[in-house]
Amino acid sequence: MSGRRAALEGLARILDAAAPEELFTGPEDDAIFLYDLLVDAARARGSSYYWEICRTARRRGVTPEYVVDRAVVLLATIEERRRADLYRILGVPALSSSEMIRQRFLELAKQHHPDAGGNSALFRQAKEAYEILREPGRRAEYERFWLRALGPFERVATRDDVPLLTAMAGVRPVRPLPAAEPSPEPPPAVVPDAEANGIRALFARADALLAPVATAEIAALRADLEGTIAALEKVRGELAALAAVKRALGA
User: Fold this and answer.
1) Cβ neighbours, 10 Å, residue 18
2) For the segment 24-73, what is each residue's pLDDT rounded down to a tens digit?
3) Nearest-angstrom CA–CA distance, 150 and 233
4) C-alpha distances in Å from residue 8, one per residue of 25, 30, 54, 103, 194
């Protein structure tokens, strides 16, 4: 895909995608183009395809900021998944051998173990990743997840360890998009940016929306759910007892 028509079609797919991996299931050239378009659209007014962003927004009855926000959220989702990837936590290539994973974990353990003055949080992350990948059954289950939820991104995203949202701030995409032809008409009038800091504020908002839920909150929700289930089971038992008494009286 190339040119303005491809950009319009790509932006429509970005708006319609239920999940980011849906964008990267086609031919490799198309997948790369869509990823670079996603990165470029997140630049808002700095995008080389801002005219197409405005035109897409007008066709869909939304603001250009909505289209930009959609691109930002999809990129944040990609970055969050890659950040939590067990292979990336250990710093080994995807689907590495068991021996490579073991050797890498030993290196990280020596470097980050709290007894050696290392970073306890990094050591805990590496240990949890290793505990999953060292067991064939758990690793097979994770690899099925990886191929579905992370594999599509490996075709298109940057391979370094810099978080995508950080790498995109003020930096052009690694693969430049096709040069845009002159706009056939001026962009439609748009509402001025509501965020004072422009695209940086969009990234901050997306980061906040995708912030992980605290463990304590999950535990509290689980306790509430278990209490509700217990109460419902009790009510069901009482209703069954009442039904039995009613049947006995009727007999």
Assistant:
1) 6
2) 888 888 889 999 999 999 999 999 999 999 999 999 999 999 999 999 99
3) 40
4) 19, 13, 10, 47, 24
**Domain range for 96:** 86-149
Closest to 56 (Cα-Cα) out of 4, 1, 18: 4
**Where among 95, 117, 149 does a domain terminate?**
149
Residue 191: CB atoms within 10 A of its CB come to 8
DSSP-assigned states of every residue in 51-107: HHHHHHHHHHTS-HHHHHHHHHHHHHHHHHHHHT-HHHHHT--TT--HHHHHHHHHH
Cβ(162)–Cβ(115) below 8 Å = no
* Structural domains counted in the chain: 3
Asked whether the whole model's pTM tops 0.85, one would answer no
